[in-house]
Amino acid sequence: MKLVTSSAFRTWTFLVVASLAVAAATLFHPLEAARAGAVLEQRKAPMKFSWVECQPNCRGWVSAVGIITSDTPKDFENFARSRQLGGATVVLDSSGGSVNDAITLGRRFRGLGMMTTVGTSVVRHTPQGDRATIRPDAFCESMCVYLLLSGTKRYVPPAAHVRVHQIWMGDRADDAEAASYTAQDMTIVERDIGRLAKYTFDMGGAGDLLSLSLSVPPWEDLHELSPAELRLTNVVTTDQVADVLPRSDSSGAVAVLESKPVQDRFVSARAETEMSAKPTKTAEATAAIAPVSAGK
Fold first, then answer.
1. In DSSP terms, which residues pair with 48 in a beta bridge?
2. pLDDT tens digits, residue range 5-29?
3. Domain that includes residue 99, residue range
4. 143/69 Cα distance (integer angstroms)
5. How far are the Cα atoms of 136, 239, 264, 292 from residue 56, in angstroms, in the given order?
6. Which of 144, 149, 173, 147 is closest to 161 using CA atoms?
7. Which pTM value belongs to this model?
8. How far is CA 13 from CA 16, 18, 21, 274, in A?
9. Are the C-beta atoms of residues 91 and 137 closer than 8 Å to each other?
10. Residue 197 in contact with residue 183, Cβ under 8 Å?
11. Which of 56, 116, 154, 238 lies deepest, with the highest CB count within 10 Å?
12. CATH number, position 246
């Protein structure tokens, strides 16, 4: 049967699209859409570290946003040099990145006894002073999940998205099925899987995390870990935000994780969809950085 597009069908399609456009204009505030787009762009840039001051409510935390590159461990060392970060919390918002460099950074976090969570740090300027909060509907994908695993305590807000998939050769992740591979390439991948497995167990993660990650090829959408899977894999160790973001005076939890209104959550999701038809498959697939395996 030959399919044709009649004039009536075209008219109906136009009316439907026009109606959706009107609805979108009502639901999506331009400033919020711009903010959501800016956050997505930061997540796809090389990882940046910043200290977010939270006094007098809490000690503060490290914001880590972006892709893990070969420069990221060095950048963190430069950032940490003038700060006392022992036992501090790292708030992650990242699309992943280099396997070996993520492992190096994760071991550094663990060495400092740092705690981890997922979120986007926001500082608002008010008449009463700056107010730091964490928007919980952030993303921790690919190797970011293994950075999350490095925390001595690990909390994931219900609105956050934690996604996993296989590691792959970074320079061929865009079209992994069509790419060619040598025996040496496969050796590098298998070597790095071994390193990742050792790191996972050293950090207290479960083999289920590797099983879930390695079952998703790079040409498929990332697998988002459910609350049950976050527990099964031991990615999450606490359901209490106060365990990773305690008050500076130790008198109780500080309400720094803010709830997002439904409209704002919808804006963020729309920005993700418009800028990327599918969830980010791999950090290396969205930026010109080194392959998954940094060294041979």
1. 65
2. 333 333 333 333 333 333 333 233 3
3. 29-285
4. 11
5. 21, 24, 28, 41
6. 144
7. 0.74
8. 5, 8, 12, 20
9. no
10. no
11. 116
12. 3.90.226.10
